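Protocol step 4 of 6: structure prediction from sequence.
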Amino acid sequence: MRINKYLASCGIASRRKCEDIIKAGKVCVNGKVLTDLGFVVGENDVVTVDGNTCQPATEFDYVMMHKPKGFITSTSDDKGRKTVMDLLPDNYKNLKPVGRLDFDSEGLLLFTNDGDLAFSLTHPSHEITKTYVIKVEGQVKESQLAVVRAGVVIDGVRLSKCKAKVMERNEKTTKIEVVISEGKNRQVRKMFEAVGLNVCFLKRTKIGDLRLGGLSRGECRPLSIEEILYLKSL
């Protein structure tokens, strides 16, 4: 089995992220630092990551969390900040977050030790939609939404077209539902910053057609069989 797929099957991270871990010199095979991204793991090879032996999982778990604000989407943080792992029950501590929500955002976040599914859900080529409910400060003009829908330019790259519709307005804020098929860092916030709008609230409500529902902030639950099969069909 190719090394990135092997590490993903151990629940280390998605295959794409596992390649970054290898490049960082954190993976050893039989005691030697691995540099070959195309290495094929043999039956008798011993693979370690940061000195810890890893073996493919024999059973997979899939968990949904309602991530609250104020937590880093990471398995650890060198600055000592709280991470989403602090919210997981002990029996799920071996799982890894799929994708990310930034520190100031909340909503639907998935966890699994199924590296292949994590890879499928996060790889840009699959273009899986994510739905967000946001609030921006002030009143939003239709001309601003038109620019966002057409795909704004961020860091010299034009984003794909997206959906954006106003849900509510009041004197101070405008609530908008946004659907995107990309997953760049802080993408939704940057999209609206590009047209002069500040996002003061952001919540992910759906991944594909999988909805966040019935969970209070900080709570999590295992996915149903139907939900797991749906995600694997994407």
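Step 5 (inspection) to follow. The mean pLDDT is 93.
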